[in-house]
Amino acid sequence: MYFIKGNNESLSIGAGDGKFGLWLDGDLYQGRSEPCSTYGNEPLSPQQDFVVKTLECWAFI
């Protein structure tokens, strides 16, 4: 279980039992959302697999 994991191939937020709360591919174009034990969340989109239309990033400096 981890909170955030990323590399050149994907970005994963939340995990457990082989599922990710939020998973994005390396191009940040395709994603998937499933319930995960890290956050105890429900899927974040109506469909498990989706295409990213807009991505907003925040940084605290």
UniProtKB/TrEMBL annotation:
The keyword Mitochondrion applies. Residues 1-61 form the TLDc domain. Keywords: Mitochondrion. This is Oxidation resistance protein 1. The lineage of its organism: Eukaryota, Metazoa, Ecdysozoa, Arthropoda, Hexapoda. Belongs to the OXR1 family. GO terms for cellular component: mitochondrion; nucleus. It is found in: Mitochondrion. PROSITE patterns: TLDC. It comes from the Eukaryota. GO terms for biological process: response to oxidative stress. The keyword Mitochondrion applies. InterPro entries: TLDc_dom (IPR006571).
